[in-house]
Amino acid sequence: MNKTELVAKVAAVVGTQKLAKEAVDCVLDTITEALAKDDAVQIAGFGSFKVSERQARTGRNPQSGATIQIAARKVPKFVPGKALKDAVQ
Fold this sequence. Notes:
It comes from Desulfatitalea alkaliphila. One of its GO terms (molecular function) is structural constituent of chromatin. The protein has about 90 residues and is of the alpha+beta class. The chain is built from three helices and five strands. The two termini are about 20 Å apart.
């Protein structure tokens, strides 16, 4: 399912495509803004989004085989909740 299909599903509940798109965009923007501030987002029964830090490491260029340094960085991480895990099984 992509974003357009998600908006269509939400539109079936809220009534209009415009309202559905605004709702989906609002949720995604809110999660993005919270993660940008290093805050965690926990949605009961669904899961949690948090920022994880990756350590700097040495990598290898697959084309040339040369070693390169990969800088440390922050990445978003999603941990599914129990209800979501149970629904998938």
